[in-house]
Amino acid sequence: MKWNSLVKTIIAIILCLFAIGMAESRYGKKPLQEISVRIMSESLQDSAGFLTPEIIKAQIRQQKGTSIDSLKLRQIDLKAIERHLLTNGFVKKCQVSRDLSGKLHIEIQENRPIARILHEKGKYISAEGEFLPLSDRFTARVLLISGEGTVKMLKNSFWKSQEGQLMLSFLQCLEQDSFWRKQIAEVYIDGKLNITLYPQIGEQEIFIGKTENFAQKLENLSIFYRKIIPNKGWAAYKKVNLNFENQIICE
Hints:
Layout: H1 2-28, E1 34-41, H2 53-61, H3 78-85, E2 91-98, E3 103-110, E4 113-117, E5 123-126, E6 131-132, E7 143-146, H4 150-153, H5 156-160, H6 162-176, H7 178-183, E8 184-189, E9 195-199, E10 205-209, H8 214-232, E11 239-241, E12 249-250
Parallel strand pairs: 1-3, 4-7, 7-8, 10-11
Antiparallel strand pairs: 2-3, 4-5, 5-6, 8-9, 9-10, 11-12
């Protein structure tokens, strides 16, 4: 009895494997029916807008060799498509899969900029300190960075240095806080990497100085907006200096 049971189990496994093999064979011969693209943003904000499903599909079809639309499913190299899409600076991560209906699924995580460096043609900078190219079809509404210090900031080595890491943390702080993201329009950085902020509302020049202790300096700036402006008015001061510890100097 035990022997008969073992034989039946082995036969069942063989038949199952044969059925799977036949199904995979039929599935592999199926032509590509559709390309589905889903673009996601890691931020709670809307997608940056640099990528669209049409752009992704066009990039896939621009690959060298046979047109993907004429291929069978088994002929499509999913990893090769992923590698090709990652050459797009605005693609942070991607995953490519296919289903039994003949559809190719592409999930993209968009690389979103947090600031734009205004020097010569300029570049975007991501939250990871990576450069992103400008786009002909879309301009992101992000923090603008100007001044002599941008020459240093256009070098990859800067963002790997201690100064660069502090600057990146400072920019991330401005971008992640809903109030600072709306209020601060431009960051001016001089040749010594001293920072001056220019707000959307109000005409004050806000001198931060170096990025050291920037969290405390921003807290002092918050006090300026919450306590000083309501009492003195928006036109009372033209300059605010936050460079000194635990001081708010208004002129």
